[in-house]
Every structure is written in C-alpha cells, then in structure tokens.
Amino acid sequence: MPVTEISEGRTKLIVPAEHSSGGPGKRTSSVFFNEQMAFNRDVSVMFLRALEKDVSVADAMSATGSRAVRIANEVPNISDVVANDADPAAAELIAKNIALNDLNNCRVSNKDLNILLSEETFDHVDIDPFGSPAHYLQPAIKGCRKNGILAITATDTAPLAGAHRGKCERRYRSRPIRGPMCHEMGLRILMSSIAYELAKFDRGMEPMLSFYADHYFRTYVRITEGARNADRTLSKIIYVKYERDTLERSYSYERDKEYAYGPFWGGNLHDSAHLSNMNASFTAEEKRCQKMLNLWKEELDTVPFIYDISELSSFLKMSPPPMTDMIDALSDIGNASMTHVSPTSFKTDLGLDDIIAVYKKIPRH
Q1: Is the torsion defined by CA of 56, 192, 229, 135 positive or negative?
Q2: Helices marked H in the chain — which ranges?
C-alpha cells in the first residue's frame, strides 16, 4: 500500500497515498483515511484538553490511528491511549505513526473491538465507524468505566435525517423528520438511541457536546450510574408533531397518532461549563474550530426545534430578512440564537405566532 506523510495539528501522520478528501469518503485503500475528518479529530483534541485530567482513551476503530495518535501527542496529561483496529494492515500503519511521533503513551491493538472492550475498560471510549454506530453501542458501553465518557460518530446521515425512514427505524427505533429540522433531529435520534442502550445497563447520560458537521453526527456523553439516573435520562425522551402546512411544531413525552415522530433526545446537547474550558488554539482547522465553538456556546441547545429563514420565506411568500436582524428582533421579546447546523436557521423559545409577527415586521433592505 503506497503511503504519504502529512501534518495535522501538531502531529505527523503516515496515511495511504490514495485516500478520501471530502464527503463521507470511499474505501480507496485497505486502510481508510478521510482528510475532511480533521475537524472531527480537532474536536476530540479540544474536548479532551478541556477535561484537564488524565484519562485512559480507547480509539476502538482507529484505522490509521490518526485520532489516537493526535490525542496522545496533543493532549497533555494523557498517559494511556489505545489505538485499536481489527485490520492487520491498519495496526501496522498505527505502529508507524506512534513511532513517527515518538510516543510512549500510545499503544497499538489489533483486535475485534468486541474483544478489546470486553478485556479492558477505559475512561473515554471513541467509536467512529464507516457508517452506523448502532452495532457497536453495547460493546462501547461495556468498555466504558464508571462515570466514563462515550464519544460516538454516525456517518449514516441519510437515514437519520429522514431520507431512508425504514432504515432509521430499524437501526435506531425512531421515525425521522425530513425538512429544515432534519439534521438537529437526526442528532437527537442518535442520542436517544444511546440513552436507550445505556438504560439496559442501568446507566444514564449527561451530554457534554453534540453536533452535526459535514456528513456526520457526533456526540460526547458522560455516563451516569444507577437505575435512577437511567430513568432520569429516559424521562427526557420526546415525540414530535410537525405540521408542514402550518409550520407548527410541538412535542410530547408520550407517543400517539399526533406525536408520531421520534423518539428523540429532548434534553440539552452540550455542557456549558465544559464548552467554556475548550480552546481552539493549535488545532488543524483553528478558524473553523473557533467559529463552531462560539456557535455551540451561544446556541439555545435545550430548544429542540429549528426554524429556517427559507422555510418562513416560502410559507409567507415574503423575501427573507438578514439573519442578524431576525435574531436581534426575536431577542427583543424572547430568547433566540443561531444554530450550528445551518447558517440560515435559528432557535427560539417563542411561539410560531410571535415568530411570524417578528418576521413580517423586519424591514427589508
């Protein structure tokens, strides 16, 4: 397999010469690597730096080892990172990357992740599969220590965002929503699926950071222990009614014929205290990391419903106002924010009548 050396963040990496550079990526060599996921790896580095304590990390589907090696090299006080992949060719490449960066806090593992996570437990378990993580949630949970952290990526955005309803229902036991809310609600489907899997083991969760970017969903959740915490977590599961002809959105904690979409995670997406400790400095995509970090900090993440300027424009047959004017006008009478999922969408705790009234009053330039 021809290889090439690149730099990402503060780390040197040997990767397949032929690799993906955008989108969900394709398997162009026996070991997968996607340049566009540098942002995803940046966030892992930022997230773990903000913990400010030594944790053991398992990158259970490591491929080239790019994430694990960057964590070992760029996060202070990380003494044990396991870069695991079942493919011997991947394990060989991981070993080269560990040696290239002269690391003594990172070790290669060449095992099926089910075996690794049954033999060892970790403070932080990362699952980033090629496609859906649904098959890997249980071993990830079993391999996570008490009060540990799960970091889960899903690249099967089409089912989660509603393009393949049947597949979403099979994998995640949830009916998705198409339209302007699809990416936020796809993220919340993934989170509800994790909540249900944790509950099987009498464990709950507290989200620390959750987002949609590029072609994938990503969530970091801290595990809470005990049946009471599991029940508390499940109490935040919601079902949604979405009427396209009126734009009305509402949710219920019980499913019925009206509230037919879901289940979705109905709690917060982020932990504001942890976000305040995150720093974008010295990441591979520093400007993008800082921009997204600012959006996450300002976002009304406990409000599950997104509205889009184009959706309102089409519904009201009016030209759209500038987003900043819309946010400012909404903020005069309630709470409102931009969202991280789209530059043309916003969240607010105001009702639809107020939103429409504000939209109509804003002067068009």
Answers
A1: negative
A2: 38-51, 66-74, 88-100, 113-119, 137-142, 157-160, 165-172, 182-199, 227-234, 272-277, 286-298, 309-316, 323-331, 352-361
String of DSSP letters for 22-44: STT----SSS--BGGGHHHHHHH
The model carries a pTM of 0.94
Q: Phi and psi dihedrals of 80, rounded to 5?
A: -145, 110
% pLDDT > 70, the chain:
96
> 240: Cβ–Cβ under 8 A, 6 or more apart, which residues?
177, 185, 249, 250, 251, 252, 259, 261, 262, 264, 304
Over residues 304-330, the pLDDT tens digits come to 899 999 999 999 999 999 999 999 999
Alpha helices in 200-260 (DSSP H): 227-234
**238, β-bridge pairs:** 264
Strand 345-348 vs strand 216-225: parallel, antiparallel, or unpaired? unpaired
Q: How many CA atoms lie within 13 A of 250 on its CB side?
A: 11
Q: Number of helices (H) and strands (E), helices first, in the chain?
A: 14, 15
**Interstrand relation of 237-243 and 345-348 (parallel, antiparallel or unpaired):** unpaired
**Which of 170, 187, 186 minimizes the C-alpha distance to 178?**
186
